[in-house]
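quick one, 209 residues, struct below
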Amino acid sequence: MSDKPTKFDIRSTWLRSIAFVVGFSVMTVELISGRFMAPYLGSSLYTWTAVLMAILSAVAIGSYIGGNLARHTTFIARAWVWLMLSAGLISLVTFVAMKPLGGLVQMSHWPIIILTLVFSFLIFFPPALTLAVLMPLLVKTDVQAIELSGSRFGSLAAWNAAGSILWTYMTGFFFISYLHTQQVILLLVAVLVLTSLGDLFFKTKPRAL
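---
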């Protein structure tokens, strides 16, 4: 029996924290999207259908892109800070652009189905896409050996889902009720930027399989 004490793996814990942040960030974008669209396009089944299509499309495409990028080890070693920063900045830029875009949408005579899709894909798709790219890179970075890939993926996916669940609750019952919508966005941007800066303290380079 080994007397060697179990070492706390701060690196893996940090990666799970990032997965948690990615989960709640995507869910925050999804939940507040309806509130942002309401002044311009109302709140209806068309609105939420377009939002879900944009977010799910972003997750699917982002996961595919991230999976391809995960094959390039040198890219992963340099990508963390920039991807997290990009997600925060893209969120800020797209939501700043929402008001002028909303004004153009209100003046358009296109069918409501087309307008909701255009609005959703221009505003909500970019930040969700950037965040979705991160998950495959997290798995690649955290895998120590091929036989551990399943458990590592399951753990990261669980933390990602936990972030989504917690932020669904917090956004739906507290943030939207007590904070202005713009304040929720600024909070999201701050969390993403601080997480990216925090990554500078952790050498999250991929481990060889």
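Residues 10-41 form the longest helix (32 residues).
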